[in-house]
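GTP cyclohydrolase 1 type 2 homolog
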Amino acid sequence: MGQAAASGSEGGAATLADVVGVMDGLYPPGSAESWDAVGLVAGDPAAPVRKVLLAVDPVAAVVDEALEWGADLVITHHPLFLKGVHSVAATTFKGSVVHRLLTAGCGLYVAHTNADSAPRGVADALADLLGIVDRGPLVAHTDGAQTGIGRVGRLAEPATLAAFARRVAAALPATAQGVRVAGDLEATVTTAAVVGGSGDSLFDAVRAAAADVYVTADLRHHPASELRERATFEGPEGRPEAGTPFLVDVAHYASEWPWLTYAADDLQAGVAALLAQRGEEGTVTCRVSTNVTDPWSATFRAP
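Structure:
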């Protein structure tokens, strides 16, 4: 895929601290999972920020794009460091990312599980793209707000499982994996649940929500097999294969990429509002990377 066009204005005088404040407001770091590592990874809070590149993964290809474009900040969904490290020397592949960015005066910020559950976050972006309406969190947070893991609701247009899976494939970035489906392709689906990223730990919640189909990524053999075996065992008489929930498995990267556009739009609006409060005009220019950072490069079918 090519590179997305940038949007926004290069005017204004936003600092990295300003951008971090807006991002933290959109995706509160306190809502991240306890094991997660979110927030500012590298950069000087006092540095000016005019260009922001948003991507799913903090990998070398994304750094190449950021530096070629002259970005002042890279915002990624996935953390560069999830475990403690003792060195960020440029002789390591992760250290090289940090060194290349900082040498070019470019910072790095991460919004991960806090962006998964927030309004207009990863889950909402995926649900909107697939036409899921009248929805709420699949697993709600206990703060009383409409936040939480995943989304579940009604399909704006019911479809057969096959047609719905084709809709998913057409809406998401193309990857080598494509879209895998488990279930009766001719059955009609009217409700759906979605979780961006790895979601087979939430099968019980999907069953409790009575969703007809579940869209997520990284489905493993045993959990998926057991879910479908149970669904078939409890399926309707005469058509046990039509037992729900059906499964639609997509690439991890593809399930989370749609959020980047929401983040770009909301960041630009937030920075513009912040500058206006200071009597200044302008915002940051945001660019959504379309570098496909899914690690798989090909699939082959048996002849």
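The chain has two domains: 16-114+256-288, 116-252.
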